[in-house]
Amino acid sequence: MLIKHTKKSQLKESQITGESVYKERRNIMKGVGLAALTLPFTKTATAGVFDIFTSSGDEAKAGGTFQRTPLSFTKNTNFQSLTSLTPESKVLEYNNFYEFGTGKGDPAEYGQQFKVDPWSLTIDGLVDNPITLNYEDLLKKFEIEERLYRMRCVEAWSMNIPWLGFTLASLLKQAGIKSNAKFVRFETVYDPEQMRGQKSRFVGGSINFPYVEGLTIAEAMNPLVLMSVGLYGKTLAPQNGAPIRLVVPWKYGFKSIKSVVKITVTDKAPVNTWQAIGPDEYGFFANVNPNVDHPRWSQETERFIGEGNVFQQSRKPTLMFNGYEEEVADLYKGINLSRYF
Fold first, then answer.
1. Residue 60's CB: how many other CB atoms inside 10 A?
2. CA-angle at 185, arms to 97 and 143, nearest 5°
3. Which of 114, 134, 227, 300 is packed most tightly, with the most Cβ within 10 A?
4. Is 86 helix (H, G, I), strand (E, B) or coil?
5. pTM above 0.90, yes or no
């Protein structure tokens, strides 16, 4: 199984994704109505093994009244994959975004009235030139490219997604990082009137919003890290983090913070939201590591969400750094990743 980036010359387009999937011609899993089961809290259990997708596979339903628009982009041929893509319908319908609710289908159901324009993204802190970007800037100020990246959730399921965006490094370079900067802090929009999970602690899983994440400067400047503004050729849907989100493919998915409004360069390590909630379960780095179990389940394998229904999803061995070890292992030389997970 190859999941790190590879040259386009080694692949055929049909190996990357079926045309029917990419052009949204299939209805996936119509009428599935099973309820999720609760797993025992043991290290041998696999998180989310019975998680079920919402049903239709029809983007009109998954997208609701929110309109996604096509984007102009170039394909980065250095980032392809031999793993088949997750169908767009499942990427739209199966999400963790507690701002809209804790159920996998809640973000798609309750996020469709979310307003992304006007929007303001600020880059501040230890920078020479603080930046404020509006909605149009996010889509037009930077050259947008498509990269196929795998996403591995801490719950032990994974997807393969064609993200559209630009590198975080290009944004930070424009701001000019000061020499004493060590970390980058990210913050999600706080808008309880639009986000029901922020309005109700019961609905939002008792999280103290706004959601916060962080990277080291070295991680943030790695060329793999994207600020994504779209997927599957179009702008992001609310449930996927519209209008702009972080994508860090070698880390568990919760590190890839959604609907970002503030990026602060700092000399202090941010306390990330899940780290604050459960420091024994969610560390600062959150690198994909099959050798370090979550306290309540194994991380050795993952359920890849692709074609078919929940009973046909394949289990695959999880690779160190989600298969991007060659590109990022040097970032962690001398760090005990079992202790600093």
1. 9
2. 80
3. 227
4. coil
5. no
Residue 201 tokens read as 């602690």
Backbone conformation region of residue 129, classed left if phi is above 0, alpha if psi is from -120 to 50, else beta: beta
Pairwise CA distance, residues 76 & 73, whole Å: 9
Q: Alpha-carbon distance 28 to 183, whole Å? A: 41
Q: How far is CA 240 from CA 5, 159, 183, 279, 289, in A?
A: 23, 13, 25, 26, 24
Contact 204, 102 (CB under 8 A): yes
Beta partners for residue 161, in sequence order: 149
- What is the residue-wise DSSP string for 233-286? TEEPPGGGTTT-EEE-TTBBGGGS--SEEEEEEESS----HHHHH-TTT--SS-
Q: What percent of the chain has pLDDT over 70?
A: 80
Residue among 125, 229, 130, 223 at smallest CA distance from 174? 130
Q: Is 331 exposed, middle or buried (0-12, 13-18, 19+ CB in 10 A)?
A: middle
Give me the percent of the chain exceeding a pLDDT of 90.
Answer: 76
